[in-house]
Design goal:
single chain; 180 residues; Hypothetical protein af1432; binds fe (ii) ion; HD domain-containing protein; HDIG_dom; HD_domain
C-alpha cells in the first residue's frame, strides 16, 4: 500500500510519546496489531485501522485524584478522552503529512472507539470504527490494567516497524473505500 505517513513516524513523534505514553504504549501497539488483523479479515483499510488503533487513547489526561492516587471509577464516570483524542490524533496526523480524508476517518474512529461517554442510544459505526472498537475491547483488562502494561522503547519500535512492513506489503484483494 502507498502511505504518506507510517506508524513509525507517529510513534517517534514527541506528541505521541507524551500522550500515547500516558495511557500505555504497550496497549496502543497491541490494539494497533489487533486492528490490523481484524481489518484484513473484514476488508477494511488496514493502514487506517492500525493508525486509529495506535492513537485511540491519545486523549487520556490527568489520571490521578487529589490524593495522588488514580481513581479509575471516577475517571471513567467523567471521562471525555475520546473527544480530546480525536482532536489530538487529527492534529498529529496532519502535521505528519497525512491525507486529509484519511486523517478525518482516523479521527472519527478514535472519537467512536468507545461509547462510554455518549448519551444512551444506538450508534451506527462504520466498518473501520467497528474494527478499532473491537480491537480495543479485545485488549482491555479489568480495572484498567491494560494501561499499565510495560514495554521498552526498543521492543515497541521493533513491533511498530514490523506492523509498518505488514501494511506496506498488504495487497488488498478487493478495492475497499479509501476511508472505509
Ligand atoms: Fe484503549
Amino acid at each position: 500500500m502507498n502511505r504518506n505517513v507510517t506508524l513509525e513516524m507517529l510513534f517517534i513523534h514527541p506528541i505521541a510519546q507524551k500522550y500515547v505514553g500516558r495511557s500505555g504504549i504497550a496497549h496502543a501497539i497491541s490494539v494497533a496489531e489487533k486492528a490490523f488483523d481484524i481489518a484484513i479479515k473484514s476488508d477494511v483499510n488496514p493502514d487506517l485501522a492500525a493508525k486509529a488503533g495506535f492513537l485511540h487513547d491519545i486523549g487520556h489526561y490527568s489520571w490521578y485524584s487529589g490524593s495522588g492516587e488514580w481513581d479509575y471509577d471516577m475517571y471513567k464516570e467523567n471521562d471525555i478522552h475520546a473527544i480530546k483524542g480525536a482532536a489530538r490524533a487529527h492534529k498529529l496526523l496532519v502535521r505528519c503529512g497525512e491525507d486529509f480524508r484519511d486523517a478525518k476517518a482516523i479521527a472519527l474512529a478514535v472519537l467512536l472507539h468507545t461509547d462510554s461517554y455518549l448519551p444512551e442510544g444506538n450508534l451506527h459505526l462504520s466498518p473501520l470504527q467497528k474494527v478499532v472498537a473491537i480491537a480495543d475491547e479485545a485488549d482491555e483488562e479489568p480495572g484498567g490494567n491494560h494501561h499499565y502494561r510495560q514495554i521498552d522503547y526498543a521492543n515497541a519500535l521493533t513491533r511498530i516497524k514490523r506492523l509498518d512492513s505488514k501494511i506496506n506489503n498488504y495487497q488488498p484483494s478487493n478495492h475497499f473505500e479509501r476511508t472505509s
